[in-house]
Write a structure and sequence with these properties.
Blueprint (H helix, E strand, L loop, with lengths): L1 H13 L4 H38 L5
Amino acid sequence: MLNTIAARLSALKADTRGVTAMEYGLIAAFIAVAIIGGLTLLGGNLDAMLNGIAAKFVAPA
């Protein structure tokens, strides 16, 4: 029984088919975190800038 379990675990360890998909998933996750972080940092400044531009416009009479 232990030999069977050890053989299956060894075969699972040697199987590398899902590694590439997992690497792509990690890369996508890191890119998403970087984008979210960048937008969070720039979001307040961008909001203030656009509100400043909008305040300079006057409504037509």
